[in-house]
């Protein structure tokens, strides 16, 4: 399989080492060595791992929203790599939420070091009450089916507070079908064959009068 090709593996190791040195010099930490109490890959709360920055940049380029007019939220932001990429992509505002305080603290430090103005919010995605503030949502397989269903319901309900286009980018989309079942349309599927990753981009148009759920 190409993923295990010697050249591909060597390139990854070189990239990993270069990133580690860069992070060490700049006082950053996006490393994936952390396993906290809440991070044990249990059925509903999945653990921390990081979206590759190259993948994230490509994904952001494919989301049809206009960054300068859109607010971005990473649901389960971990140490904040995707927040960094979203700021660099020019989003009007950028925020991330996570239920692991330790990871959030690292994310805040990373953003401070990078001099980036980002809101790092401590919250469980199921309790978060401000989805209406955002237009573009990013998920890297943060949780299981039951939680996803609740969060998708909240995204849809947030149109009652602010009726707008909603874009979702879902990396490693294990529960992608849930978005379509809830009324989102699948706009694009991005596959990276060398890294063996998939991202789906979903769209929910603004509601017309009378279309709101009871
Ligand atoms: C796979 S990591 C992704 C991190 C980051 N988005 C990235 O791509 O680099 C998933 C994150 O979701 C967080 N998470 C899991 N369940 C959550 C929940 N119910 N509410 C908020 N965050 C959650 C975890 O703490 C973890 O940091």
Describe this entry's structure for a reader.
The chain is α/β, with parallel strands linked by helices. It has a single domain, classed as Rossmann fold. It contains six helices and seven strands. The protein has a seven-stranded mixed sheet with strand order 3-2-1-4-5-7-6. A hairpin with a 4-residue loop joins strand 6 and strand 7. The protein is globular and about 55 Å long.
Q: How many domains comprise the coordinates? A: 1
Number of strands: 7
- State the low-pLDDT regions, or none: none
What is the SS-derived class?
Answer: alpha/beta
CATH hierarchy class name:
Alpha Beta
If you consult CATH, what is the topology?
Answer: Rossmann fold
Which percent band covers the strand fraction? 15-25%
Number of helices: 6
Alpha carbon gap, first and last residue: 50 Å
Query: What's the name of the CATH homologous superfamily?
Result: Vaccinia Virus protein VP39
Provide the list of bound ligands, each named once: S-adenosylmethionine
In CATH, the architecture is 3-Layer(aba) Sandwich
Principal-axis shape equals globular
Strand order, biggest sheet? 3-2-1-4-5-7-6
The SSE order reads HHEHEHEEHEHEE
| Rg measurement, Å | 17 Å
Task: Provide the helix percentage.
Answer: 25-40%
Major sheet = 7 strands, mixed
**Mean pLDDT, as a whole number?**
89
């Amino acid at each position: 399989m190409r993923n295990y090709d010697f050249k591909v593996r060597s390139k990854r190791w070189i990239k990993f080492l270069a990133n580690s040195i860069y992070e060490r010099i700049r006082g950053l930490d996006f490393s994936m060595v952390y396993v906290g109490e809440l991070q044990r890959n249990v059925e509903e709360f999945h653990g921390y791992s990081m979206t590759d920055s190259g993948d994230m940049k490509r994904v952001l380029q494919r989301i049809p929203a206009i960054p300068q007019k859109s607010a971005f939220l990473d649901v389960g932001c971990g140490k904040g790599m995707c927040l960094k990429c979203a700021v660099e992509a020019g989003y009007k505002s950028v925020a991330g939420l996570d239920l692991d305080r330790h990871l959030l603290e690292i994310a805040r430090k990373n953003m401070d070091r990078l001099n980036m103005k980002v809101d790092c919010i401590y919250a469980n995605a199921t309790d978060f009450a401000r989805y209406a503030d955002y237009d573009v949502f990013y998920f890297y397989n943060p949780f299981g089916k039951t939680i996803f269903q609740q969060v998708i319901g909240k995204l849809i309900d947030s149109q009652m507070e602010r009726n707008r286009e909603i874009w979702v980018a879902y990396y490693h989309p294990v529960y992608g079908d849930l978005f379509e079942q809830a009324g989102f349309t699948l706009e694009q599927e991005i596959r990276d064959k060398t890294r063996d990753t998939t991202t789906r981009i979903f769209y929910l148009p603004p509601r017309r009068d009378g279309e709101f759920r009871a």
